[in-house]
Design a protein that fits this description.
This protein is of the alpha/beta class. The chain has 3 domains: about 35-130, Orthogonal Bundle (Fumarate Reductase Iron-sulfur Protein, Chain B, domain 2), CATH 1.10.1060; about 145-240 and about 385-450, FAD/NAD(P)-binding domain (3-Layer(bba) Sandwich); about 240-380, FAD/NAD(P)-binding domain. Helix content is about 35%, strand content about 20%. The chain has helices spanning about 15-25, 35-40, 50-55, 60-70, 75-85, 85-95, 105-110, 115-130, 155-165, 180-185, 195-205, 225-230, 260-265, 285-300, 320-325, 430-450, and strands at about 5, 10, 145-150, 170-175, 210-215, 230-235, 240, 255, 280-285, 305, 330-335, 335-345, 345-360, 360-375, 375-380, 385, 400, 405, 415-420. Helix 4 crosses helix 8 (about 115-130), helix 5 (about 75-85) packs across helix 8 (about 115-130) and helix 9 runs parallel beside helix 16. It is globular. The termini are far apart. The relative contact order is 0.14.
């Protein structure tokens, strides 16, 4: 394998071809039929199931597990899809260890929960393996047409539920592909074999949904345009803004946005072609920070250090994800915050940090500093909602906390506009929560269109 290097020491082709294949294989290999049956038999089928309450989309978990145990995998999938049409991806990426599996009675009594996520994947994969199979038929054509802005989890879930009710939907997606973070933001080892696009095709298979890619709100149309041309509008644009590091030297070569790098990795045809440093620092404590740290390590980086300003209990990443990073060779250092990135010839070569602590409940520096040698620094400190797109026209929904304000039905302050996913105030950074937003908004839109 050729070893390409630039002046900063960031290079591609660090590993042999078989190592990339091994390092980015499926993180949780699927259960076979026998394993699924054995695991399903561990479920107590609780009447007042805490796992169901913990699921943001309220999937009837005991019901679908019982269906698996009786050999009815397709019936189990239908139970899942009734609440979450993107149940296949959620089975792969949901932090089940902090949701349904955390409250499983088996977990609280034995410390070993039923493998709900893997059972959900078994059922949905079994159903989706038949490319011609669809779980739902469309209702009679309503004559109504809805615009959905953003083809991510929230937009897809909204579009599918609206189509079920007989409404026509046009999805406007700014990128070249639909899927949102499921396509561009998930760690490659969590979703293999181009599953994100297979799931998009599955969702669109119901019919009545048109997708127009390369169409961005604020550039190709305004919200007012959509309001005048469509009977209702759903906004599910996610978070396009990237939070700044606010440290000297963050514009040096080698300092990059983690989300963009993950997107490049997800779309790469040859992982060996991705440039990666030898010594990497990751700033952040959430899922994106874990994903970029683990993936750069698996691309061949020698030293990857995740730097977080608070303690492990405050990290957005779950204990399981933190453990995954550490067992993958990532060093996690807590109570440190970046002060400056230093460089030579325009490229980063060190990061200066200060130890941090809490003083009267507020984060403060201790005055004690140290430096790490780096050739790549990844910013994974969160994203922000870029409101320029919705401010581009005469119709602007009310905002709160820099995001779109909605009610419990995901209705905005505008008469025929709804929103969901990460772009709304209170939105959670979870695929499953975005799906719930999209489905909830679709039901509200359907009532509005049926009035």
């Amino acid at each position: 394998m050729a070893d390409h290097q630039n002046e900063s020491g960031i290079r591609s082709g660090r590993l042999e071809p078989h190592e990339y294949q091994e390092n980015f294989a499926d993180l949780h290999p699927p259960l076979d039929r026998h394993e699924a049956s054995v695991e399903a038999d561990r479920c107590y089928f609780c009447y007042d199931a805490p796992c169901m309450t913990a699921c943001p989309t309220s999937i009837d978990i005991p019901q679908f597990i019982r269906q698996i145990s009786t050999g009815n995998a397709n019936g189990a999938a239908k139970t899942i899809f009734d609440q979450n049409i993107l149940g296949g991806m959620c089975a792969r990426v949901c932090p089940t260890e902090t949701l349904c599996e955390q409250v499983c009675v088996r977990e609280t009594s034995e410390g070993k929960p039923v493998k709900i996520g893997l059972l959900q994947r078994f059922a949905t994969d079994s159903f989706m393996s038949d490319k011609k199979q669809q779980p739902y038929d469309r209702a009679k054509e309503s004559g109504k047409h809805v615009a959905v802005v953003g083809g991510g989890p929230a937009g897809l879930a909204c579009a599918h539920r609206l189509s079920m009710h007989g409404h026509d939907v046009t999805i406007f997606e700014a990128r070249a592909k639909s899927g949102g973070l499921n396509e561009f933001g998930i760690a490659a080892y969590k979703s293999v074999d181009d599953f994100a696009q297979a799931e998009v095709d599955f969702v669109l298979g119901i019919g009545g949904i048109t997708v127009e890619t390369g169409k961005a709100l604020g550039r190709d149309m305004t919200l007012a345009d959509l309001q005048s041309k469509y009977d209702a509008v759903f906004i599910g644009t996610g978070l396009a803004g990237v939070n700044a590091l606010r440290a000297e030297g963050e514009n040096l070569a080698g300092v990059a946005d983690a989300v963009s790098y993950i997107a490049d990795l997800r779309q790469a045809e040859d992982l060996a072609g991705l440039p990666v440093g030898r010594n990497i620092a990751v700033i952040g404590g959430g899922m994106t920070a874990i994903d970029i740290a683990v993936q750069t390590k698996r691309l061949g980086a020698e030293n990857v250090t995740l730097l977080y300003r608070r303690g492990p209990e405050q990290m957005g990443a779950s204990a399981y994800e933190q453990q995954l990073a550490q067992t993958s060779g990532v060093t996690i250092r807590h109570w440190v915050m970046p002060i400056a990135v230093h460089g030579e010839n325009g490229a980063a070569n060190a990061i200066e940090l200060e130890y941090s602590r809490l003083e009267n409940g507020k984060l403060a520096g201790t005055g004690e500093r140290f430096s790490l040698e780096v050739d790549q620094v990844f910013k994974a400190i969160g994203q922000s909602f870029d409101d320029s797109a919705i401010r581009s026209g005469s119709s602007v929904p009310e905002l709160k906390g820099g995001r779109i304000l909605v009610d419990t039905d995901r209705k905005t302050s505008l008469e025929n506009v709804w929103a969901g996913g990460d772009c709304i105030f209170g939105g959670e950074d979870l695929t499953v929560a975005s799906v719930d937003d999209g489905r909830t908004a679709a039901e509200s839109i359907h009532l509005f269109l049926s009035a």
